[in-house]
Amino acid sequence: MDYGVAPDGVIFATLMHAYFKAGNVEAAMNENGLCKNGRLDEAKLHFSKENANEISYTVLIDGLCKQENLVQEFRLQKQMVKEGIPPNLFAYSSLIFGLTNKGFMIEAKQVFDDMLKKGTSRDHVVYDILIR
């Protein structure tokens, strides 16, 4: 339904988060107009610049982490940085969580070190992810 009002980044991110929480990655991608011609995996790589901001990237990275799609997660993080949007604490935490859940502790430590090198603040959550 079109009410003549474009959703802002917060509304967009909230919708994506709800879809991911429900386990519906395809709906999350469709919400951003990414799922074209049934090519969901390819669509994830071409994240829409129209709605891209720190919040939407972070929500998408977190959703991919929960779907255990580490390759796509890292590609999206790389694209985020390329577009001049540095990952925030939540994005880094999601990346580290995804890696540790798959047993990639060395890679998780490398992401943590990168986070420190970039000056991103850390909290107890990221430390908890690393030590469990």
From TrEMBL:
Repeat among keywords: yes
PROSITE patterns named in the record: PPR
Record keywords, A-Z: Repeat
InterPro entries assigned to the protein according to its UniProt record, in alphabetical order: PPR_rpt, TPR-like_helical_dom_sf
Domain of life: Eukaryota
Pfam families: PPR, PPR_2
PPR repeats: 53-87, 88-122
Family: Belongs to the PPR family. P subfamily.
Name of the protein in question: Small ribosomal subunit protein mL103 (RPPR7)-like
Organism of derivation: Coffea arabica
Gene: LOC140021382
